[in-house]
Design a protein that fits this description.
single chain, alpha+beta, 2 domains, 7-stranded mixed β-sheet, 4-stranded antiparallel β-sheet, about 35% helix, about 25% strand
């Protein structure tokens, strides 16, 4: 294995267009963050100028704002409401085409067309979220062919974070701010250049075609220092040491009523979450009623309809639904998939209209739960 300077290259900011062109030459549709209607969203890009140069995001509970700083930073914005999830798990996906025939009906699968998509600007939390989605849709006995078809065409150019938002807590979840796996190329923006690292065979092939000079030890050290500073500057964290059992034990805690009194059950938190995978199925017939499409679309455990099973709603109240979401995300998810369902991106905090913060809710549930348990033991002592 070579030294760090032998495995890292340097791409001047002024040459960034070469990366976009190299991806296009490989047959990829290049997608990156763009500013639209006061937010940053994924869009097809062709020029460096399509990226949010000079923009920064300010995020707080229930608040998202963009501001133009006048700098030349290409990736000053950390993230918008969209993660990588939509690229593999489509928000709306036709699964079957059903057509009435003389003797009944026929069905045909509607697999997505194969497309090579290169996503530039994914963050470490996004890659961690996509890894959880892969665990759900690609592993074990039930591999989802629709997800697999979209996932196989992705080329991921990640960006290491050198600034954190007040809503970020990926460091405590060990999912960032440095990308560690799941990327083809990783970039770290340092002033007027990018430190570039390949993370896959496809990434190494593209990097070799760019013929970039090796990075200096000073640049590698500076990039590492900025990433470490980003981790230290995070003001929120989650302590998972007592999970999942402690959250199960808090099932009847009064805190659930308190948070349910604030929650609007709007589903925003689940729509922006990189790992939530609830979905529903609907039939969409044409006007002649000769054809119908069997469609899968995103749903949320916060909706009343999602808890309706066999004539009964098993989660009729907002309290039931919030408790279900948080307990699954931070407890039973660990039992199911061997990992937490939270990657510390903070999107659920930012995009909650009333600013509910799970980094506040979890400690309140667990700390109070311990106190209640001690009090109950004391009452029962002779």
């Amino acid at each position: 294995m070579g030294t760090a300077s032998e495995t890292h290259a340097v791409l001047p900011t002024t040459d960034f267009q070469r990366l976009l062109e190299a991806l296009s030459m490989k047959g990829y549709r290049v997608v990156g963050p763009t500013v639209r209607e006061g937010s940053v969203v994924w869009e097809t890009i062709r020029q460096v100028s399509d990226l949010p140069i000079g923009w920064r995001d300010q995020q707080e509970p229930g608040r998202y704002r963009l501001e133009h700083t006048g700098s030349n930073d290409i990736f000053g914005v950390v993230h918008g409401p969209q993660s990588l999830k939509p690229f593999a798990f489509a928000p709306r996906e036709p699964l079957l085409q059903i057509e009435r025939s003389k003797n009944g009906f026929t069905t045909s699968s509607t697999f997505p067309q194969s497309e090579k998509v290169a996503v530039i600007g994914a963050r470490a939390c996004d890659l961690a979220g996509l890894a959880v989605q892969d665990r759900i849709f690609l592993e074990d006995a039930y591999r989802d062919p629709y997800y697999a078809a979209r996932r196989e065409g992705l080329f991921l150019v990640a960006v290491n974070c050198t600034r954190s938002l007040t809503t970020c807590f990926c460091a405590s979840m060990e999912t960032g701010p440095r990308v560690s796996r799941g990327f083809d190329l990783a970039l770290t923006e340092v002033d007027d250049s990018f430190l570039v690292e390949a993370g896959s065979e496809a990434g190494r092939d593209l990097l070799s075609g760019l013929s970039l000079p090796p990075a200096s030890e000073d640049l590698i050290g500076e990039a590492g220092s900025r990433i470490e500073a980003c981790a230290r500057n995070q003001v929120r964290r989650l302590d998972l040491a007592r999970l999942p059992q402690a959250l199960y034990e808090a099932h009847e805690h009064a805190r659930w009523d308190e948070v349910a009194g604030r929650c609007l059950a709007c589903t925003n938190c689940t729509m922006v979450c990189p790992t939530c995978f609830c979905h529903t199925i609907e039939e969409t017939p044409d006007l002649s009623h000769q054809q119908s499409t069997h469609v899968r679309l995103w749903d949320s455990c916060f909706s009343q309809q999602h808890g309706y099973i066999h004539g009964k709603n098993i989660r009729p109240t907002i309290k039931d639904r919030y408790r279900m979401w948080l307990t699954h995300k931070l407890a039973s998810w660990i039992d199911q998939f061997g990992t937490s369902g939270c990657v510390g991106c903070g999107r659920c905090i930012t995009w909650c209209p009333v600013g509910i913060d799970l980094t506040e809710e979890l400690p309140a549930l667990l700390t109070s739960g311990v106190q209640s348990s001690i009090a109950n033991q004391q009452v029962g002592d002779p």
